[in-house]
Amino acid sequence: MVYVGIPKGQADQEEEVLRTIQDGDSDELTIKRFTEGREKPGALWHIYAAKDTEKIREFLKKVAEEQGQENPVDHDPIHDQSWYLDHSLRKRLHQEYGVQGWAIVQFLGDVVFIPAGAPHQVHNLYSCIKVAEDFVSPEHVKHCFWLTQEFRYLSHTHTNHEDKLQVKNVIYHAVKDAVGILRANECSLSRP
């Protein structure tokens, strides 16, 4: 978080942000950072374990049906980013599916790391600028490849339909580099 713009002289907005942080299931230390430390909160994140993705997807489809919304086959309630799980929906998700996430308030200067495939949502508390960087670690190539396969089933007009992770290219170049290093050191490897 590189910038948080807090309007001057709007105490009611500060109270609203505090309420949002509290309703967002933030812990007491985080609340104290805001109230006592006078740090600048930019965003409230809710991050869930990747293993809970299907349960969350099922829950969102169920809620959509209850509200009379359609669930087209080529759309995904997580990748569509059309839902925000407020306090009541998060509570219901925990009660009905046993899924509970982590609430993280990102203050000015904080970094938030989101594990591969972890469903997440963000609520900006003030005007802010965040810098994001995606990467594929060797430990998560399999999971990232699985995400790429999920994107293929989205409609062609969907913003996530394209392979943003470029997992196949990452694998190709990693193998190419490894083979190049092995070939360059072939003489030293063949000595007894």
TrEMBL record:
GO terms for molecular function: chromatin DNA binding; histone H3K9me/H3K9me2 demethylase activity; metal ion binding; methyltransferase activity; transcription coregulator activity. One of its GO terms (biological process) is regulation of transcription by RNA polymerase II. Keywords: Cytoplasm, Iron, Metal-binding, Methyltransferase, Nucleus, Transferase. Its EC number is 1.14.11.65. It comes from the Eukaryota. Pfam families: JmjC. Binds 1 Fe(2+) ion per subunit. It catalyses: N(6),N(6)-dimethyl-L-lysyl(9)-[histone H3] + 2 2-oxoglutarate + 2 O2 = L-lysyl(9)-[histone H3] + 2 formaldehyde + 2 succinate + 2 CO2. Its cofactor is Fe(2+). The keyword Lipoprotein does not apply. Residues 1-152 form the JmjC domain. One of its GO terms (cellular component) is histone deacetylase complex. It is found in: Cytoplasm; Nucleus. The JmjC domain and the C6-type zinc-finger are required for the demethylation activity. Leu-Xaa-Xaa-Leu-Leu (LXXLL) motifs are known to mediate the association with nuclear receptors. Belongs to the JHDM2 histone demethylase family. Histone demethylase that specifically demethylates 'Lys-9' of histone H3, thereby playing a central role in histone code. This is Lysine-specific demethylase. The lineage of its organism: Eukaryota, Metazoa, Chordata, Craniata, Vertebrata.
